[in-house]
UniProtKB/TrEMBL annotation:
<keyword id="KW-0547">Nucleotide-binding</keyword>
<dbReference type="InterPro" id="IPR027417">
    <property type="entry name" value="P-loop_NTPase"/>
</dbReference>
<keyword id="KW-0067">ATP-binding</keyword>
<dbReference type="InterPro" id="IPR032823">
    <property type="entry name" value="BCA_ABC_TP_C"/>
</dbReference>
<dbReference type="Pfam" id="PF00005">
    <property type="entry name" value="ABC_tran"/>
</dbReference>
<dbReference type="Pfam" id="PF12399">
    <property type="entry name" value="BCA_ABC_TP_C"/>
</dbReference>
<dbReference type="InterPro" id="IPR017871">
    <property type="entry name" value="ABC_transporter-like_CS"/>
</dbReference>
<dbReference type="InterPro" id="IPR051120">
    <property type="entry name" value="ABC_AA/LPS_Transport"/>
</dbReference>
<feature type="region of interest" description="Disordered">
    <location>
        <begin position="1"/>
        <end position="21"/>
    </location>
</feature>
<dbReference type="InterPro" id="IPR003593">
    <property type="entry name" value="AAA+_ATPase"/>
</dbReference>
<feature type="domain" description="ABC transporter">
    <location>
        <begin position="45"/>
        <end position="291"/>
    </location>
</feature>
<feature type="region of interest" description="Disordered">
    <location>
        <begin position="336"/>
        <end position="357"/>
    </location>
</feature>
<dbReference type="InterPro" id="IPR003439">
    <property type="entry name" value="ABC_transporter-like_ATP-bd"/>
</dbReference>
<feature type="compositionally biased region" description="Polar residues">
    <location>
        <begin position="1"/>
        <end position="11"/>
    </location>
</feature>
<protein>
    <recommendedName>
        <fullName>ABC transporter domain-containing protein</fullName>
    </recommendedName>
</protein>
<keyword id="KW-0813">Transport</keyword>
């Protein structure tokens, strides 16, 4: 498939043929049968034997993984499955014990996170890393620092610097307008809501015109009023020719926007395929639900069945709405959030997140 449009061009820049091209491509994503580690027709990332352990825990143990280009791939799995660690490894924020991986055919092992971003592979974090004491615009400008125009030596050449400055500012303004943050451009990022900070982080990551955008739990902590807008922005990334890989516990979001789903459990890829197929997969149900395996996650009936099953299980905290894990359908409505998590207390995940994961 041709790369018809620069990722920076949005729908505002005129008729967007790529929108149709990328959104309507129904060719199979896998080369053969879907399954863990299956080959893709057009992969943008290919990883082999990537492992990372912490003490005795094999946090990531991925034999083979390919991420399909121009598609939205969801990376799902219970708490502690290794999703964020895999993100960290692929983007140079952590170093694996072994393995190699390529982005657009280029080896990335040993490449710093800064260079990875400059090559077009950017990521956001579960807890946003926007700078609270900088304004929204200053945060955006920081996002451009992976571009050559921001290098110090270029600053010595006033002409280049001046035009580059204008270019960066105008690019930032365009993105802020698109993300409806333009009225906040001079506000401190600390004054934004959680959802607006997620939008800002996403907008900032686009300052380098990435080819692959990796979002770690984009919906976590987002007010329902902003949920639809975030979903639309993610779909737009694909329409504009970008590839998206996102980690998410919100199964409705996964079913709604993902073209492909990769499931991790205990560091390994245990299932892969189109959302509707994967959520019926026994390995996925087992990974999420342990003993509660007679339930189909792909249907709302399945959720009801699970709730009933859990209501009779005194040992399980899954399904107790107070824990924020599964809300009954009566509470969810249409644009609901359905979280399917393993109990956090199993591995002290909460503590780590508070430390700035
Ligand atoms: N810096 C670290 N030090 C020690 N253990 C870690 C560290 N980072 C991750 N782990 C462990 O590695 C495993 C995988 O964690 P990871 O955060 O990647 O899982 P996850 O699938 O992203 O979970 P969640 O859905 O809760 O975000 C867990 O057992 C976790 O406790």
């Amino acid at each position: 498939m041709s790369h018809a449009a620069s990722p920076s061009q949005g729908p505002a820049s005129g008729p967007d043929v790529s929108r149709n091209e990328y959104m309507t491509d129904t060719r199979p994503i896998a080369e053969g049968e879907a399954g863990p580690g299956c080959r893709k027709r057009d992969p943008i990332v290919v990883a082999d034997n990537v492992t990372r352990s912490f003490g005795g825990i094999n946090a990531v143990d991925v034999e083979h993984l390919e991420i399909p280009r121009h598609k939205i791939t969801a990376l799902i799995g219970p708490n502690g499955a290794g999703k964020t660690t895999l993100f960290n490894l692929l983007t140079g924020f952590d170093t694996p014990n072994s393995g190699k991986w390529q982005f657009e055919g280029k080896d990335l092992a040993g490449v710093s996170s800064y260079k990875v971003a400059r090559m077009g592979m950017v990521r956001t974090f579960q807890l946003t890393k926007v700078m609270g004491k900088l304004t929204v615009m200053e945060n955006m400008r920081l996002g451009a620092s992976a571009q050559p125009g921001e290098k110090l030596r270029n600053a010595l050449f006033q002409g280049i610097w001046g035009s580059r400055e204008k270019e960066i500012t105008s690019h930032a303004e365009g993105l802020l307008t698109k993300f409806k943050l333009d009225t906040k451009r001079d506000d401190y990022a600390a004054s934004l809501s959680g959802g607006q900070r997620k939008l800002l982080e996403m907008a900032r990551s686009l300052m380098v015109n990435p080819k692959l955008v990796m979002l770690d739990e984009p919906m976590a902590g987002v007010n329902p009023a902003l949920t639809q807008s975030l979903l639309d922005h993610i779909k737009n990334l694909k329409a504009e020719g970008m590839t998206v890989l996102f980690v998410e516990h919100d199964m409705h979001m996964v079913r709604h926007i993902a073209d492909w789903v990769v499931v991790m459990a205990e560091g390994k890829i245990v299932a892969e395929g189109p959302p509707a197929e994967v959520m019926k997969d026994q390995a996925v149900i087992d990974a999420y639900l342990g003993a509660h395996h007679d339930v189909d996650l792909g249907t709302s009936g399945g959720v009801k069945a699970l709730e009933q099953e859990l209501a009779q299980d005194e040992e399980s905290i899954v399904g107790t709405q107070d824990a924020g894990i599964i809300a009954p359908e009566s509470v969810l409505g249409d644009a609901e959030t359905l979280r399917v998590d393993a109990p956090k207390t199993e591995r002290g995940a909460d503590t780590r997140k508070e430390e700035g994961k």
